[in-house]
């Protein structure tokens, strides 16, 4: 399977958040390796790592949004909460039915989940932050 490739279209223009997104892509890309997709214990560990790093990233992104008075912060935070629950439920489903969910399916789910959120939601915040009077470094704090 082809790994996710970072592109400038994914950039939100805030270095720390972009680096977090690259890290998340790196975690998901572990599932692009054929051997990793064949090992249910490793798939579960990768899902756990994805969940843990996602929580860290969402907290940082939300703090940045609050500091910049992002007008749709509440809706974006609700989306983060829903996305976290979604990937946790997916992980729980995988643990309960390892034989019924292939490594390819897990990779496809995670890649779509992450790509959709970055490209659709986070880039909107990047556009807002880029048009704000503050410099992006000030938004990070």
From TrEMBL:
<dbReference type="GO" id="GO:0046872">
    <property type="term" value="F:metal ion binding"/>
</dbReference>
<dbReference type="InterPro" id="IPR012827">
    <property type="entry name" value="Hemerythrin_metal-bd"/>
</dbReference>
<dbReference type="Pfam" id="PF01814">
    <property type="entry name" value="Hemerythrin"/>
</dbReference>
<feature type="domain" description="Hemerythrin-like">
    <location>
        <begin position="13"/>
        <end position="125"/>
    </location>
</feature>
<keyword id="KW-0561">Oxygen transport</keyword>
<keyword id="KW-0813">Transport</keyword>
<dbReference type="InterPro" id="IPR016131">
    <property type="entry name" value="Haemerythrin_Fe_BS"/>
</dbReference>
<keyword id="KW-0479">Metal-binding</keyword>
<comment type="similarity">
    <text>Belongs to the hemerythrin family.</text>
</comment>
<protein>
    <recommendedName>
        <fullName>Hemerythrin-like domain-containing protein</fullName>
    </recommendedName>
</protein>
<dbReference type="GO" id="GO:0005344">
    <property type="term" value="F:oxygen carrier activity"/>
</dbReference>
<dbReference type="InterPro" id="IPR035938">
    <property type="entry name" value="Hemerythrin-like_sf"/>
</dbReference>
<dbReference type="InterPro" id="IPR012312">
    <property type="entry name" value="Hemerythrin-like"/>
</dbReference>
<dbReference type="InterPro" id="IPR050669">
    <property type="entry name" value="Hemerythrin"/>
</dbReference>
<keyword id="KW-0408">Iron</keyword>
């Amino acid at each position: 399977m082809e790994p996710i490739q970072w592109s400038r279209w994914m950039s939100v223009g805030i270095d720390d958040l972009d680096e977090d997104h690259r890290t998340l892509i790196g975690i998901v890309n572990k599932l692009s390796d054929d051997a990793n997709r064949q090992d249910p214990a490793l798939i579960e560990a990768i899902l756990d790592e994805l969940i843990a790093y996602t929580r860290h990233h969402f907290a940082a992104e939300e703090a940045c949004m609050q500091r910049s008075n992002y007008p749709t912060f509440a809706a974006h935070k609700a989306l983060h909460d829903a996305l976290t629950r979604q990937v946790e439920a997916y992980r729980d489903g995988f643990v309960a039915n390892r034989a019924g969910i292939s490594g390819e399916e897990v990779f496809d789910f995670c890649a779509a989940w992450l790509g959709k959120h970055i490209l659709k939601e986070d880039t909107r915040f990047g556009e807002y932050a880029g048009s704000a009077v503050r410099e992006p470094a000030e938004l990070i704090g």
